[in-house]
Amino acid sequence: MRQWYRSGLEGYCKACAQVMGLPDNNSGWGNFGRDIFCDGRFDDSAKASKTWVLSRFRAQGRSNRLKIFEESWLGKHGRDFELEAIHTCVHTMSARTGDSTLYELLQSAPDTFAKDFHNVVLPAIAEGFEAERYHPSDIACFLQGIDYALENIDVTLPQTFRNFAIPLVAGLIYGPDHAAARSGVNTVTVREKGDEANALPQATVDMSSIILTQLFCDDAGLIGYSGTYDKDHAIFLGRDLDFTNFANVCDGELASAIEQKKPIAFPLSHTHTSTSRAHGVIVRTGDNWYYYDLSTNGSYVENVHQPSSVHRGAVALAPGDRIYLGLGEPPANDAATYRLATAILVSFKLDESFERSR
Known about the structure:
This protein has helices at about 10-20, 25-35, 45-50, 65-75, 80-95, 100-110, 115-130, 135-150, 160-175, 245, 250-260, 335-340, 350-355, and strands at about 205-215, 225-230, 235, 260-265, 280-285, 290-295, 300, 310, 315, 320-325, 340-350. It is α+β, with helices and mostly antiparallel strands. It folds into two domains: about 10-180, no CATH class; about 195-355, Tumour Suppressor Smad4 (Sandwich), CATH 2.60.200.20. Strands 2-1-11-10-7-8 form a six-stranded antiparallel sheet. It has a five-stranded mixed sheet with strand order 4-3-5-6-9, with helices on one face. Helix 1 (about 10-20) packs antiparallel against helix 7 (about 115-130) and helix 5 (about 80-95) crosses helix 9 (about 160-175). It starts with 7 loop residues before the first helix and ends with a helix. The model is unreliable at about 55-60, about 185-205 and about 350-358 (pLDDT under 50).
């Protein structure tokens, strides 16, 4: 008999319990709810029912589910800090394995986890999203990203679990159209390392705006937040979103460059300990975009023409560059790089004349 779910969250919890052979009640699927909300609300059927539904069309304020999630991880002043709540949740799930039923499921059946999740859990999540009336393209995009992350999970590497869990939790709480839930699919074209033939020529791009995308693995199939910024922005990179910390370390040429700019923080989906609170700034000066390093550990900018380490200095950016925050030397050619540094891809929009000629 087919099950009906009121939300993606309900589909996830109940389908995971089915895969794990747990009872179809609060004591069974409630384990997966506790992973995400870190409290006992799923022990009570009435509270669980209220938590399932997002009610995102309410006229007043954010829905009850978002408030519950953010406050459960960040306290009563944690509302609206979406990314911080997501990453606190996922970090806890992967760091304390005994307290995470999802991580326990992965460890107990690493060979069948991806198959079971794809065949049982993802269809249940999709059905719940349909009940929440999300657009089919958003649902399909989300499922494709989760599928990619599933293929790359290694039980011995917690980072690969986090790369899977970050978009999963973001989608279940905020919906499949949330930026952090779209980590598997993006319109940004990414070249392979050292492949100059695939790098966009300078003449075919519009340098008035810049696109930044966080990368989680070497082939760039799994990405984090992606944002587009124009020439009037000064984009701050680091573990801290408080601009005052950047103001304390910006001086000289950089202070002059950002004086008339609008400050904006790039919301990193995940950062490493090597990344400083105020690590660097990207700003356009004249006809070029520059990355200014302000950090303790430095950065490495991988450019197809002139790769360079930068520490308390500046370097011009080009299409296809990768900025490794906290890595002061050329990165290793393996996944370990992404456990040591925070990686940012630099790209630009194609200019209109090039688009018309295609």
